[in-house]
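Annotated sample (chain length 495).
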Amino acid sequence: MWNIEDFTTAAGITVGELAAYVGESQLGDVPVIRRRPPGELARELRLAELIRKGGMTAGTYRDFLHAFLNEGTRLHHPAFLAHQTASPDFPAALADFIHGATNNSMAIYEMGAAAATVEFEVVRWMLEKVGLPRGAGVLTHGGSLANLTALLAARAHAAPGAWTDGTPGDLVILAPPSAHYSVSRAASIMGLGQKAIVELPTDELGRLDVTKFPDFWGPTSVGGPLERASASVGGPLERAGASGDRPAEGVGGSSRLAGRPIALVASACATGTGLHDDLRAVGQWCRERGIWFHVDAAHGASALLSPAHRHLLDGIDLADSVVWDAHKMLRTSSLSAAVLVRREGALDAAFRQDAGYIFYGDQALDLIGRTVECTKSELGLKIFLNLAWRGEKGLGDYVAARYATAHRFWELASRRPGFALPYEPESNIVCFRYGTADQAAIRERMMADGSFYLSSTLLNGVRHLRVTVMSPATDDKHLELLLDEIVRSTPPDPS
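Output written by the structure step:
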């Protein structure tokens, strides 16, 4: 059994060390990232010894935790500008603490009635925000799993027998090249393979361009347009790449068809650039053709809470499924992602499982039939506590402020010589280049001394640096310091 006195002492140590960690991180007085080799770090943390012998006490725990927190990445730091990972708010951290002690795996209602009820209400709130008030949803452990779950629901809609008979070989997923990698990963997990990803035409910044979409799918129901298009090109349908000659342009550059579409995937916003597809135009195109419209709004859906930015999601109410990650812009700790669907039974149709030890009796309140997971954390509690503390307005203000800081970086960088910025940002993500030097090397030099932590991406095949503003501590002073550091970290042009 727990020794309650030991737990109370250790919990107090934990709170004290974490408070100091977050406090010094927000001030920016320590390096934003440390990444010593694992062998060296394992020795300092005494990992092998403690694993084999145990014996940790309150005193040795304090030393361990202090050393542990001193390594890694500080997401509360003003110089953390790398990835779309939340600078978590403290109510979400409390939820993690609560779950760590209670461990209610609430996908089965009887295993966590309070946690399940919280999730029901949080999902209902999210459905209302995206404009699908009569739909259904579930929280999953991450956006990649959420995208897979949504595409499984879309597969069940396009091929109801797939769960029993296997995935038909003519199914495809329509998506831009800028779609999150989890979409193509889902295709292979589902047995479709990478050749089943049909790349739709985009503009020069990777946004779907509906004006360039092919006429392969006329206004009709799923399945019908392919049959008609097959007749128009004078031959039977062939799966994309079956003969090794899939066109580089995707469907826009070929008269050959790929197969029956499971879904069309749009981004709000794209992971690499932070730019949004025109959801209304794409959604209407899908509606006219009976194609499942999936919106990957993992990052951008939180802008629905900001009156100044919700227009970026115009048309999301046309979606058949939506993914929304709370562990990005709703400031929850990892992981907590929502899969939201238009039709009540769509998620239940995605999974058809029998197991006598778990599936029996009245399970109307269970979520296990809607997810890959059997054991599921109390994910809704993190979202709920952040909302309960900050409210919709507080979280909306957070989103608006991060977007404004990113736009401010774009303004400041645009004024400096040598900086090239290919677009005006729509969100809290900005891509740019400095000079002609190796951009990845610039990033690496700043990470080496822990001054700033940026990420990088390819845009039109060219390597760019990438800023993602997540920490509330990042302000103009740090943006100017970042620009100075980029210049300092760039070797002189030999020409």
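Annotation: Confidence is low (pLDDT under 50) at residues 220-257.
Annotation: The first strand starts at residue 33 and ends at 34.
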